[in-house]
Write a structure and sequence with these properties.
630 residues, Ribosomal Protein S5, domain 2, Heat Shock Protein 90, 5-stranded mixed β-sheet, 31% helix, Ribosomal Protein S8, Chain: A, domain 1
Length: 630
């Protein structure tokens, strides 16, 4: 007896539905894509119980004649592609011809449609893949699809559906993504008896983001100026340094109007932020990429969310440069904050004794004694070297810096001088490329031996002295690494490690970067690598773990980004130990110098770990807290 049989059409559709229809949100995604492809200018979504009981999507698109309506619920029926050449250059959101028959096979399905010029429309009802009725119907031009009792005929699948609140969250996220990708379309979403959002059509993407994410978040976003690089056009909005989220919900990238996911895009965004993002946090991004459809493959998975690029390197570089350049150009003032929860509740310390000018150690350099202790070999003593970089030796202290406080203040530490009209003019908006100058701030005091209080033209600014000093030291050490390299210590007994051939070949291509990092490595026959020196400030029990970490970083390091980033984690850890801590009293001039050095940094508004260094409380927020403004 034959063991192999051909599945029935109904069973085959249910099997295919397992890839296309994972949950209610998958149904809404497919229906929204069809509406957008049909040229809809208005889309309304209604759902009940997270989409498990009801999903109804109505649009004012082109609609369908009866013959097309009957064909659209057949497997592999589509109006989007005709030939294999069309598959190589897909310009529509949908194209596979699987969504509607898959949905109809696992739910109670009803389709009502009418073309704009037709006198009447068509209504088709399908239950569990079986045609129930086909009839004439009225209604406005466009298409309305109703899906009830999802997975009612598949109990095994139904039990894997999550709670209503979880499914509702996924449902809302899918609609939000499409609404952001297509602001020119009116979107309305109703769940149960509640209107979740009603967004009018607009040509302003930021206005659409404001309607979905709130005015506070939208007001802090930085605009990514439209730019084209290597045939990839990037535009959109990103969050400033210090704005992160614990999940990926707001890490949004759109390719040719399609919300997409790809490791190369996630890497590009995170690499663009670099140290401006706290580890474990995800950035807030609304990036819009435009690329030749022939250079991207969207036919990777039936859900069409994952994509592959013909030239992934070019796409990655375009994203990195767009994000990094925006952070460099547009970040012109401290991170805004409206709450006081981050401040310490301890009493302010007594003012330290006044230091003479020659007693002030510049906060912008590592103090000689601490540096010597930090760079003391953790492994056997190093062999003598002919040259040590300047940053490994004592650094002379610079001359005293001018005061930040204007002359004529009533008392040290509490300036009350009346500012000039120029000083009371508003600070540059975030879109301005002009940085605030040290003269824009006036020193007020120190709170809790950690938070430095400054006054700006816009209000109160709090500086975390530890985070600020970390950023200054980090950029100083990084500059010296790039020019002079890292001092290394030779090992009494060289280490040998056997690597995969591709890892050995990759390390061989980056020997110069490894030497600047303080790692002495050379082939030792076969696939073995010999390590005879390591960075002097490396503090780890197992150097092999460090080497494997370097290999992992080399695998992901962008070609155009400096390979010296291999050592930045080590630098960040080192400067964290050397930076001034909480309870370390600093003299007024030390704090003034710290402010100057911080504002001279490439990325002054966060420490190397992504924590903010400066938080601003505008006068408007203070006035609201004191009841002077509603």
């Amino acid at each position: 007896m034959a063991k192999i049989r051909i599945m029935s059409d109904a069973l085959a559709s249910q099997v295919a539905a397992g890839e296309v229809v994972e949950r209610p949100a998958s149904v809404v995604k497919e229906l929204l894509e069809n509406s957008i492809d049909a040229g809809a200018r208005s889309i309304e979504v209604r759902a009940e119980r997270g989409g498990l009981a009801l999903i109804r999507v109505s649009d004012d698109g082109s609609g369908m004649a009866r013959d097309d309506a009957l064909l659209c619920v057949e497997r592999h029926a589509t109006s989007k592609i005709r030939t294999k050449e069309d598959l190589a250059s897909i310009c529509t959101l949908g194209f596979r011809g699987e969504a509607l028959p898959s949905i109809a096979s696992v739910a109670k399905f009803r389709l009502r449609t009418r073309e704009p010029d037709a006198l009447g429309g068509t209504e088709i009802t399908i239950h569990g893949g079986k045609m129930v009725s086909v009839a004439d119907a009225g209604g406005p031009p466009g298409t309305e699809i109703e899906v009830r009792s999802l997975f009612y005929n598949l109990p095994a699948r139904r039990k894997f559906v999550r709670s209503e609140s979880t499914e509702y969250g996924h449902l809302e996220q899918v609609i939000r993504l499409q609404a952001v990708a297509h602001p020119e379309i009116r979107f309305a979403f109703v769940h149960g008896d509640r209107v979740v959002f009603h967004l009018p059509a607009t040509q302003d993407r930021l206005e659409r983001i404001r309607g979905l994410a709130g005015a506070d978040l939208a007001g802090r976003l930085l605009e990514v100026t439209r730019r084209e690089e290597q045939a990839v056009t990037v535009s959109g909005y990103i969050g400033p340094p210090g704005m992160g989220r614990s999940d990926r919900r707001y890490l949004n990238v759109f390719l040719n109007g399609r919300p997409v996911e790809a490791p190369v895009l996630t890497y590009g965004v995170r690499e663009g932020y670099h140290t401006a993002l706290m580890k474990g946090q995800y950035p807030v991004t609304f990036l819009f990429l435009e690329l030749d459809p022939g250079a991207v493959d969207v036919n990777v998975h039936p859900a069409k969310r994952e994509v592959r690029f013909h030239n992934a390197g070019a796409v990655r570089e375009a994203v990195i440069e767009a994000v990094a350049d925006t952070l460099r150009r547009q970040m012109a003032r401290p991170v805004s904050g409206v709450g006081m929860s981050g401040l310490s509740s301890r009493m302010a310390p007594d003012a330290p004794e006044k230091a003479s000018d020659d007693e002030i150690a510049p906060p912008g350099t590592i103090r000689a004694q601490e540096l010597a202790q930090e760079l003391a070999p953790a492994l056997p003593p190093p062999a003598p070297v002919e040259h040590q970089p300047e940053w490994f030796q004592d650094v002379e202290r610079p001359a005293p810096v001018p005061r930040l406080i204007p002359e004529g203040t009533a008392a040290p530490g509490l300036p009350v001088a009346t500012p000039s009209p120029e000083e009371t003019s508003p600070m540059p908006e975030p879109s301005s490329p002009v940085r605030p100058k040290p003269e824009d701030f006036r020193y007020l005091g120190v709170l809790g031996k950690l938070y430095v209080l400054l006054e700006s033209r816009e209000g109160l600014v709090l500086m975390d002295q530890h985070a600020a000093h970390e950023r200054v030291l980090f950029e100083e050490m990084r500059r010296r690494m790039e020019t002079e390299g890292v001092p290394s210590q030779r090992l009494l007994v060289p280490l040998t490690v056997e690597l995969e051939p591709r890892d050995l070949e990759m390390l061989s291509r980056h020997t110069d970067a490894l030497q600047r990092l303080g790692v002495g490595a050379e082939p030792f026959g076969g696939n073995t690598l010999k390590i005879d020196s390591l960075p002097a400030f490396l503090k780890c029990a197992d150097p092999m773990n460090f080497l494997h970490a370097v290999i992992e970083e080399l695998r992901s390091t962008s070609r155009r980004m400096s390979t010296l980033r291999l050592g930045e984690d080590l630098v960040a850890t080192t400067v964290c130990r050397h930076a001034v801590k909480a309870n370390d009293p600093l003299h007024e001039k030390e704090l003034e110098r710290l402010v100057r050095d911080l504002l001279a940094c490439d990325m002054p508004y966060c420490c190397p770990h992504g924590r903010p260094t400066l938080i601003q409380m505008p006068y408007s927020d203070l006035e609201r807290k004191f009841g002077r403004r509603s």
